[in-house]
Amino acid sequence: MASRSMASLLAWLPALAVAAANDCDVAVVGGGWAGLYTAYRLAPTTPNLCLFEARHKTGGRTYSVREEHNLTIDIGAYRFGRDMHLPGDLIRFDLNLSTRCYQPDCGLDPEFNTTLYKIVDGDAAENAAGYETPLRLITRDLVARGVRVEYGRELVAVEDGADDRGARLVFADGSAVEAGAALLNLPRKAITALDAGDSPLFRYDATAARLLAACEPCPHPEGFEVEQLKVYLVYPEPWWRTELGILEGSFAATNSSPPFFGRFHDGPMLRDAAGALVGAGAIETVYTFNEKVPSITYYDAYRAAGDDPLTVSTNATLLAESHAKLLALHAADFASKGVDPATVAPPTSAVMGFWDASNKFLPTPMSSNFRAMLKTCPEETCLGGVDGHAYTMKTSNPTGGKKNLFVANNDYWFTGYQGTPCCWAEQSLKVAEHILKTHFALPKPAWLDEAYYRDQVSAL
């Protein structure tokens, strides 16, 4: 099977004369879920495979943080359902990672009507390992296989290659590589920045070019940018659990500062091998869009400088105001349990993930047709009436097969298509696997559910 797929791949890849040090049979640009997965699937059969990442690390908008109390907090993507076989089957059956229900009662998520899971350490304590764990493992595997993995490589242009079907990839440092084929796992901001001159990425299909570079989800008047925010307060002890016995549920208080829109069961808590709580815990106090809760701009004053989404703040005002409001919200619960809230130790930090549209590398996660998920968004007239199937075919293969240039990223999914909402790893992984099947002649992975592959991948 492996030798047959390799023969199929080499049948259409251009024959590179003398492989220079900067040539790639296949180049993957972007180290998020779709980029790493594509490289992972191609690595066993592709002799000269390259992965280029603009930032200092892979993972993209899956971003796990280990804070000072040894809690692992996900400020980006963080959970999956087992019916989401991509990435679920990869996580469980190929990488053999341990998982635990996201909600303590393993009940159905009220928004998505399925039981959701998170990745945990493989020991008896089953503490949160972080959703970035599989991506770190894949990155290590690629390096071990000899895949050329390079960081700090921002793509600034896609040009015609020396071979008719290949491409020349130009990077911000002035270097360039010739690639027989290229998959771009880049968000919309980064793809749009490539729309200059006569790039083959936008040359062959006007509809594909429009959808890639001129069709912003949730379009707003100039000056307003859609931002997504996650905030976790880290406490020396998870008092909502130990003192009040609150296991799960949501809470909201958005009309005063600091605004809250969070969940009790989202943040990690440290346990011992017997499952007992033994240390710090984090509570999610915010997870929403400014489109839905405009008052979350309160937190912008505490954001760290730079374009990294992560901020870990120990600002005394932020922590004191957040703590006081959180205790006040639970005054009745403290009274019913006979607990004096003054005995609760204050938080030691706020771990925040700021995801905004202006960030070229890690922008707000928003797929097209976003109004299907967030009803307050303006209509995307730029879609021009395309349906989910047409959208996927146009954006994933924008040259219509004239060039070996492909795109797979969560930003380029049609929200609601095949019942898949925004913003899950599943969106880009289904597209990546479809590209691997259709254009690289790779067979279904042995670990992937057969019906899912047939109905959700092949049928894209």
Task: Explain how this protein is built.
A hairpin with a 6-residue loop joins strand 13 and strand 14 (260-263). The protein has 13 helices and 19 strands. The chain is of the alpha+beta class and 460 residues long. Helix 2 runs parallel beside helix 4 and helix 2 runs parallel beside helix 12. The strands form five sheets. Strands 1, 2, 8, 9, 10, 11 and 19 form a seven-stranded mixed beta sheet that branches. The protein has a five-stranded antiparallel beta sheet with strand order 15-16-12-18-17, covered by helices on one side.
Describe this structure in a few short sentences:
This protein has 460 residues and is α+β, with helices and mostly antiparallel strands.
Features:
460 residues; alpha+beta; 5-stranded antiparallel β-sheet; 13 helices; 22% strand; disordered N terminus
- Alpha-carbon Rg, integer: 23 Å
Distance between the termini: 24 Å
State the helix count: 13
Query: How many beta strands in the DSSP annotation?
Result: 19
Main sheet characteristics: 7 strands, mixed
Classify the beta-strand content into a percent band: 15-25%
The residue fraction in helices comes out at 25-40%
The coarse overall form would be globular
Helix/strand class? alpha+beta
Mean model confidence by pLDDT: 92
Counting copies of identical and different chains, the oligomeric state is: single chain
Which residue ranges are poorly predicted, with pLDDT under 50 across at least 5 consecutive positions? 1-20
